[in-house]
Design goal:
EC 2.6.1.1; 2 domains; single chain; two-stranded antiparallel sheet; alpha/beta; Aspartate Aminotransferase, domain 2; Aspartate aminotransferase; 450 residues; 41% helix; 15 helices; Aspartate Aminotransferase, domain 1; seven-stranded mixed beta sheet
Length: 450
């Protein structure tokens, strides 16, 4: 069966005939067919659950005048006074750009070249053999959500009959975006509510029984919403299943550096699956959280090519970049410039880069300190929990999956002006030294009352 690929610069790039999605040799990317993604969402999966809300309703915390309200719904970092924090590294980059303005011209359709190159180095490592051999196609995206959308649209061209599997639970936009492109979306087990941890045996079973060649969405670190990450040994076991079943990993990396405070530690899953295990896959990368650039929409999509000698891989990489840019061309033409300029300035200046790593440690450290404080206060107050609140500090990242029920969350909103999602997900960015005790007292009252 012959396949074709189209790009903005060429109406049709022909390649040697290749195998279809189900029989493609491991490490090989089939070229897209001319079939277009269906705009009609698929029917719901029988295992579908209610998505975890990303934020609270607009009539919630911002419209209430209560001076003691605590907003635990927003996924944006705040300092210990509850104020937004401009990272010193970002402030330094903006000062540099003010002294050396770059202008406001359109970017290339692939995005900011320095941003793309250095963003890939952040993800795969500056000494990555993948990058040295030119095996990574990188295109700037409209932050992480834009990268996920481009990944869905690109994979729909390559694997029109594949199914997508997302963790249960997951970021709610994962399902929405893949279904909007036309993929059937199913769930694989991830969270064990009784143990308040990863349901690892069930997770492996679901991945092992998914149809061969399925698209598997994974969280690189700081799983949203549970905060429960896999261990290195568990990632290795997942990688073995993905390789044996010839699944396609789509890794969503929204919190690299923010989870542990260390960029390399948080990139373990990315480098294991896409480099060491040589899985062809897609990485969706965002700098919204790690640099506090929420409104600047700085992100990238990276597609890794294996199974070909380096010269041939470079040719395929160029074609993939053209295909992704062609998808983007129909939607927004070129990506935003200013956020990419900031990221490029931080990553290309040794002093700013060192400052950024220190900033990541500051943010991660404050969040970890709030976990310890919450756990201590809940224990001091005698709030009952089957694990004595061990899970608070066992989880990692911006969110605490508290185990509070939807009725308890509603009671906290109405009676204590504590705003969290019905799922019990708490954004720890809204917790600080000034309100942590009051939060824990409110939780005590909710548990006792509801």
């Amino acid at each position: 069966m012959g396949h074709q690929i189209t790009s903005p610069s060429q109406s049709c790039l022909r390649h040697r005939p290749c195998l279809g999605p189900r029989s493609t040799p491991p490490g090989m990317w089939p070229l897209p067919t001319r079939r277009r993604p269906s705009p009609t969402p698929s029917s719901p999966s029988p295992r579908r659950t209610t998505p975890t809300p990303v934020s609270l309703p607009s009539r919630g915390p911002h419209s209430r005048p209560a001076p003691d309200k605590i907003n635990l719904g927003q996924g944006a970092y705040k300092d210990n006074t509850g104020k937004p924090w401009i990272l010193p590294a970002v402030a330094g980059a903006e000062a540099h750009l003010a002294r050396h303005p770059r202008g406001h011209e359109y970017l290339h359709r692939f995005g900011h070249p320095t941003f793309r190159r250095l963003a890939a180095e952040v993800a795969f490592g500056a000494g990555s053999q993948l990058l040295a051999e030119g095996r990574v196609a990188s295109v700037q995206a409209v932050s992480g959500s834009g990268a996920v959308h481009l990944a869905a649209a690109f994979l729909r061209l390559l694997y029109p009959d594949a199914a997508v599997y997302i963790p249960n639970p997951s970021w709610s936009n994962h399902r929405v975006m893949f279904e909007a492109i036309g993929f059937p979306v199913h769930e694989y087990a991830y969270y064990d509510a009784a143990r308040r941890g990863v349901a690892f045996d069930a997770l492996l079973h679901d991945l092992d029984t998914a149809p061969p060649g399925s698209i598997i969405v994974l969280h690189a670190c700081a799983h949203n919403p549970t905060g429960c990450d896999l261990t290195h040994a568990q990632w290795a076991a997942v990688g073995a299943v993905l390789k044996r079943r010839r699944h396609i990993p789509v890794i969503d990396s929204a919190y690299q550096g923010f989870a542990s405070g260390d960029l390399d530690a948080d990139a373990h899953a990315i480098r294991l699956l896409l480099d060491e295990l040589a899985l062809p896959g897609v990485l969706c990368q965002s700098f919204s959280k790690s640099m506090g650039l929420y409104g600047e929409r700085a992100g990238a999509i990276h597609v890794v090519v294996h199974g070909l000698p380096a010269p041939s891989a470079s040719e395929v990489v160029a074609r993939i970049e053209g295909q992704i840019a062609w998808i983007a061309r129909k939607e927004y033409t070129t990506p935003p410039r200013y956020g990419a300029e900031i990221v490029a300035a931080v990553l290309s200046d040794p002093a700013l880069y060192a400052q950024w790593r220190a900033d990541l440690a500051t943010m991660s450290g404050r969040i970890s300190a709030m976990r310890v404080a919450i756990q201590r206060h809940l224990r001091e107050l005698g709030v009952p929990a089957d694990d004595n609140w061990d899970h608070v500090t066992a989880q990692i990242g911006m969110f605490w999956f508290s185990g509070l029920s939807a009725p308890q969350a509603r009671w906290l909103r109405s009676e204590r002006h504590v705003y969290l999602a019905d799922s019990g997900r708490v954004s720890l960015t809204g917790v600080n030294e000034g309100n942590v005790r009051r939060l824990c007292e409110a939780i005590r009252d909710a548990v006792a009352t509801v």
